[in-house]
Each structure stands twice: as C-alpha cells, then as structure tokens.
Amino acid sequence: MVILFNKPYRVLCQFTDPEGRPTLADWIPVPGIYPAGRLDFDSEGLLVLTDDGALQARIANPRFGLEKTYWVQVEGIPDETALRRLGTGVPLDGRRTRPASAALIEPPTRLWPRDPPIRYRKTVPDSWVEIRLKEGRNRQVRRMTAAVGHPALRLIRSRVGPWDLGDLAPGQWREVPSPSIPAGSR
Q1: Burial of 155 (0-12, 13-18, 19+ CB in 10 A)
Q2: Domains in the chain, start-ordered, CATH in brackets?
Q3: What is residue 178's predicted lDDT score, i.e. its pLDDT?
Q4: 17, 26, 40, 164: which is the annotated catalytic residue?
Q5: What's residue 184's pLDDT?
Q6: Tens digits of per-residue pLDDT, 45-94?
Q7: Which of 14, 132, 140, 141 has its CA 20 to 30 A from that of 97?
C-alpha cells in the first residue's frame, strides 16, 4: 500500500508525540503504514507512506538515488552564482552535499495559504527556487539555501520520485498503486 499525503505546516512526520503536537495520526486513520522519509515540522508538502519496508527503504535511503523536488520561497533573489553553488553542492557538517539542480521559478500556481503566513519584509524581496536532490540530510534544503545567503521562508516538497502533489490540499491523502522503483529513477 502507498499513500500520498500533503503534510500541512506544523505537523510531525510520526504517529505519536509525547508533547501533544499534531501528528500523522490526526490526519491518516490507516494502521500499519510508515513514512518513507521525513519532512520537518515546519515544512509542507508531499509525504509518501507505505506498509512495504523494502519500498520504504528505496524511497528514503539516498543510495537508491530517488529524486525529490522542493519549492522553496527564499529571502532575496539568488543570482547565478548562488544557484550554481546549490547545484554543485555546499558544505554541511564538513561534507559537501551531492549535486542537485536549482533554478528560479515563478511562484507555484497551486499554492495554498499558510497559517500563519510567512513574514514579509518591505525592504527585502523574496523569490521561489526549485531544488531537486537525491539525498535527504537533516533540514538539508533549508541549510543549503541559508549557506548561499538566501534563508528559506517556506519549503514545500512537490515531488518524490514518480509521485507528485497533484491536487491534494493540505491534510488530504489518497492511496495510489505501489510501483516498482528502480535505483536511480526520478
């Protein structure tokens, strides 16, 4: 079984929390499934859940090279140098991130309002960057954009391998067929 979930802002990617914060259990009443990878509490977007341990490993483990796509609203407007640095890798914790792709994009058309909204500053413009990567270190995308001088204001995962958000609204989920994911697939 594979479930695609549009994780809302400020929801934990687990089914329990001793601190009482919102979790997946508040949204998905399906027993025996587990997230294949994580999204931070303050990130939004596509989360894949499954009851298949081997599939979960293929999705979450970077050695299988499954690409993940993120839309990142950042402070400022990254120039070509910043985008190239994101693409070639930036040092995090003494190790360079794997090559990725990074490009300025128009604000995504299928966005939903975030509650609370991001902070806007009259004197600092913001822009959107699409980042595609094949690894998933702790808070990696946020740390990468900050490392090139453009802190993330909002982060939405739009795609994981063959799956994308489609028309899922925040908090909505749907079951999809379980594909065979070869190593290195998009």
Answers
A1: buried
A2: 2-176 (3.30.70.1560)
A3: 81
A4: 40
A5: 47
A6: 999 999 999 999 999 988 888 999 999 999 999 999 999 999 999 999 99
A7: 14
**Among 56, 60, 62, which residue's Cα sits nearest to residue 95?**
62
The three-class DSSP label of residue 34 is strand
Query: Torsions phi, psi of 84, nearest 5?
Result: -65, -40
Q: Once rounded to an integer, what is the mean pLDDT over residues 87-116? A: 93
Task: Identify the pLDDT of residue 164.
Answer: 95
pLDDT digits (tens, 9 = 90+) for 133-180: 999 888 999 999 999 999 999 999 999 999 999 999 999 999 998 876
Which residue, chain included where needed, has tokens 């979450």?
Answer: 60
* Torsion sign over Cα 115, 11, 8, 105: positive
> Could you tell me which residues come within 8 angstroms of residue 176 by beta carbon, excluding any fewer than 6 positions away?
2, 3, 4, 163
Mention every residue, 6+ apart, whose C-beta is less than 8 A from residue 88. 99
40 a catalytic residue: yes
Count of positions (residues) in the chain: 186
- Measured CA to CA in angstroms, residue 12 lies from 18, 36, 105, 136 at distances of 11, 13, 28, 17
- Please answer whether residues 49 and 168 qualify as being in contact, where contact means their C-beta atoms are separated by less than 8 angstroms: no
